[in-house]
Amino acid sequence: MSNETQLEWWPSPAKLNLFLHITGRNPQGYHLLQSLFQMVDVGDRLAFKVNQSGIINLQTVLQDVPAEQNLIVKAAKLLQHYTKTSAGCDIWLDKVLPMGGGIGGGSSNAATTLVALNYLWNTNLPSHVLSELGLQLGADVPIFIQGKTAFAEGVGEIISPVELKTQYYLIVFPNCHVSTAEVFAAADLPRNTPKIAWSDYSFEQTHNDCQKLVSQRYPKVANLLAHLLEYAPSRMTGTGACLFAIFDTNNQAQQVKDTLPEDCQAFIAKGVNNSPLCDHLAKKSG
């Protein structure tokens, strides 16, 4: 990467769904959800170099993802069109998070693009407008724009920030990709879980409505989940395939990480109530 040391990197953090209940569908057919989005301190990074040509150029090639289909490019063009700015940009991506893992990599990349370019292009849209734009790109994008650990409802657009105690998460990717579209299209997916109030939340009294279905279809997910459950409270995040186990200390998480089979990817992240993107923007805005 040319001039990499001169680029300013913006965080694009991962998230976990500590639970995921599907409570029904709206008149448009979209699934209605309840979830607890936990922000973590690990993720991808993006860098932007503003140009006045109006051209959006993604400098980092992602295998099997044409640039025009990449959420980063879509986010940049959406903001450009909405604000009618004449500015463009070159964009670099330092990809760390596994694709198709259910930890929000693509949605987080889109959110970071919107937040960063809104600042760098001086388009100055308020956060709620950026969130409305982000929702056009994906249900999880507004969560990353708001940048708070939050209780979410609806299709993901009703967001209530919450404060959680600091915990450490061993996040494991089984090296298999789960299609979110296929999971939500499955006939045997539960869609009638009763709603809960946030005041009634506990990890033990919640679940992930997608977990059983994905475990049945992907044995590697089922086997890894069984392994993690021997050591700590564990669950699948989102529609998978990533799994997480919860610990009080980094050291506890590291000890279990060392027991994992070699045919998976794993990393340890600390749960945070404010996302690194939120913190970065606050420093920039001074």
Report the β-strand fraction as a percent range. Answer: 25-35%
Tell the overall outline.
Answer: globular
Distance between the termini: 30 Å
Average pLDDT metric = 94
Number of continuous helical runs: 9
How many individual domains? 2
Radius of gyration: 19 Å
Low-pLDDT windows of residues: none
Let me know the largest β-sheet. Answer: 10 strands, mixed
Which structural class is indicated by helix and strand composition?
Answer: alpha+beta
Report the strand count.
10
Proper CATH architecture of the largest domain:
2-Layer Sandwich
> Secondary-structure element order, as H and E?
EEEHEHHHEEEHHHEEHEH
Name of the level-1 CATH class of the largest domain: Alpha Beta
Q: Determine the CATH topology of the largest domain.
A: Ribosomal Protein S5, domain 2
In helices, the fraction of residues equals 25-40%
Please describe the structure with a list of short key phrases separated by commas or semicolons.
2 domains; globular; 9 helices; ten-stranded mixed beta sheet; alpha+beta; Ribosomal Protein S5, domain 2; Alpha-Beta Plaits; 286 residues
Give an account of the 3D structure.
The protein has 286 residues and is an alpha+beta fold. It has two domains: 4-162, Ribosomal Protein S5, domain 2 (2-Layer Sandwich); 168-272, Alpha-Beta Plaits (2-Layer Sandwich), CATH 3.30.70. 30% of the residues lie in helices and 28% in strands. It is built from nine helices and ten strands. It has helices spanning 71-83, 105-120, 127-135, 141-146, 180-185, 211-217, 219-229, 250-257, 276-285; strands at residues 9-25, 31-51, 56-58, 88-94, 150-154, 158-161, 168-173, 234-236, 243-247, 265-272. Strands 1, 2, 3, 4, 5, 6, 7, 8, 9 and 10 form a ten-stranded mixed β-sheet that branches. Strand 3 (56-58), helix 1 (71-83) and strand 4 (88-94) form a beta-alpha-beta unit. Helix 1 runs parallel beside helix 2 (105-120), helix 2 crosses helix 3 and helix 6 crosses helix 7 (219-229). The model has no long low-confidence stretch (mean pLDDT 94).
